[in-house]
Design brief:
Blueprint lengths: L8 H12 L16 H12 L4 H14 L4 H37 L3 H8 L9 H34 L3 H12 L4 H46 L3 H12 L5 H22 L1 H6 L6 E4 L2 E9 L2 E5 L5 E5 L5 H5 L1
Antiparallel strand pairs: 1-2, 2-3, 3-4
Helix pairs in contact: 2-3, 3-4, 4-5, 4-6, 5-6, 6-7, 7-8, 8-9, 8-10, 9-10
């Protein structure tokens, strides 16, 4: 049997046929499952809001609740753990820096400054855990302020007992600025009481000081009154009154002024009063005794028992005679 050549026409024909046949399509695996929308939203929010840790936690906790027992829940757990770890690290770092400033403030007994520093803890890092730590630090500062206030109050009370009221007020004023509401309320109450006592003392001292100058004024006033120069007395009184301020002295001034006006009014009415006398009425004016005969040219006419009419000038009458 002759050997079949490698170029056997039958073999060549098969090869040609195979060459013309189309290549088979590649195998396609199962289509990957799509990411759930809540997960996409959480991841997108985390990317766009890297500093909003609270917002990130809320979204991944929602994913955890929705997909409990499913693959997305594991992703949520991991993300939550990472966010909480980052939150604690950042909060711890920031609070450590704040505490450093608080300690410096406390060293100088600047309690209000210490409380102000604690208020600087960022809102974005606040949660139940870190709020608790900040509140504990606030309580420590308030405790230190209360201890300082107890010592200061002893000093203030001692100063008040010695009569050093302004010094006591200054000490309580310092305490009121500690920044602790309870301490401020107690200090303000003590300050009000001390200021009232100080005002009373200053008023009493002012009254005593004014009494001395008022007595000197009265001596000058009396000289005018003695000479029956009532208008001059009133003018002097009005000028002097401008230099006095205490209620007690001003009341005394008013009383004296009223008395001078009373004298002035009475003596200006003497002639009018005499005109109401009935002619023939018995009258005594100084060393003159007799019956009233009337008033003529500023003189009172008196008839003695001998029948002699004697004149008495009105401006020569004494104050007692005028009042009579």
């Amino acid at each position: 049997v002759p050997e079949v050549a490698s170029g056997d026409p039958g073999t060549n024909a098969d090869s040609a046929a195979n060459a013309d046949a189309p290549e088979p399509a590649p195998e396609v695996g199962p289509e990957p499952s799509s990411t759930p929308e809540p997960v996409k939203a959480a991841l997108e929010f985390q990317k766009e809001n890297p500093d909003d840790l609270e917002g990130q936690l809320e979204r991944f906790q929602a994913v955890l609740t929705l997909f409990e027992g499913k693959p997305p829940a594991e992703l949520a757990r991991q993300s939550i753990a990472e966010i909480e770890k980052r939150w604690d690290a950042e909060a711890s770092k920031v609070l450590a820096q704040i505490v450093e400033q608080v300690d410096k403030a406390l060293d100088g007994a600047e309690f209000a400054l210490a409380l102000t520093e604690l208020k600087k803890f960022p809102t974005a890092l606040r949660n139940a855990k870190w709020d608790k730590q900040v509140e504990e630090l606030n309580a420590q500062v308030a405790g230190a302020a209360n201890k300082a206030f107890e010592k200061l109050e002893v000093q203030a009370m001692d100063a008040a007992d010695k009569g050093e009221l302004q010094a006591a007020i200054d000490l309580y004023t310092k305490a009121a600025a500690y920044g602790v509401a309870e301490i401020k309320a107690r200090a303000d109450e003590s300050i009000a009481t001390l200021k009232e006592a100080l005002a009373e003392r200053q008023s009493a001292a002012a009254v005593l000081a004014e009494r001395g100058t008022y007595l000197r004024h009265w001596m000058g006033l009396a000289s005018f009154i003695t000479k029956r120069e009532y208008q001059k007395a009133l003018a002097l009184h009005a000028r002097a009154k401008l230099g006095y301020k205490t209620e007690e002295t001003l009341a005394e001034f008013q009383k004296e002024e009223d008395d001078i006006n009373l004298l002035l009014g009475l003596f200006s009415k003497v002639e009018e009063g005499l005109l109401t006398y009935k002619k023939g009425k018995f009258i005594i004016l100084g060393n003159l005794k007799g019956t009233f005969e009337g008033v003529e040219n500023g003189k009172v006419l008196i008839k003695s028992k001998e029948g002699i009419v004697l004149p008495k000038s009105l401006d020569r009458l004494s104050d007692t005679e005028k009042l009579r």
